[in-house]
Amino acid sequence: MYQEGDKILYPMHGAGIIKKIEKREILGSVKDYYILHVPCGDMKVMIPVDNCDAIGVRPIVTEEEISKAIGILKQDSTQMTGNWNKRYRENMEKIKTGNIELVAEIVRNLTRIDRENRLSAGEKKMLSNVRKILQSEIMLVRNIDEAEARKVIEDAI
Fold this sequence. Notes:
By secondary structure, the protein is α+β, with helices and mostly antiparallel strands. It folds into two domains: 7-59, Beta Barrel (Thrombin, subunit H), CATH 2.40.10.170; 63-156, CarD-like, C-terminal domain (Methane Monooxygenase Hydroxylase, Chain G, domain 1), CATH 1.20.58.1290. It is built from six helices and five strands; from the N terminus they run E-E-E-E-H-E-H-H-H-H-H. Helix 3 (84-97) runs parallel beside helix 5 and helix 4 (100-115) packs across helix 5. The chain is globular. It starts with 6 loop residues before the first strand and ends with a helix.
């Protein structure tokens, strides 16, 4: 179980700091929830404590892992299917893992496709969300603000 002040990643929303742990009654059931503040976008998320493993919540990565992810951003794009619908589903599965290297790969590949104006509306939204997920973890690991984290990503790609 995590504690107040711990920095964790919620795969579909990004990295944040646990501000408190509260008991809440939702749909007639009382459960403990982490109240997570995600600095990227100044978002507050409630995560059921007993569901963390199933949804892939994990501690934030180390500086070494951030450096590795930034290295991935600099690499050549990997081959992806030309069918945007299939590509979208494959990328969504990668995002759900919470693996920062896979997230960096998605950011890199979709950014480059977007520069050629070949992203569907759904993939543009996915790119925006996945970029924020990566950005939020960089922010917390390096203790920098949103603009600096965005610049780290852009400079690497």
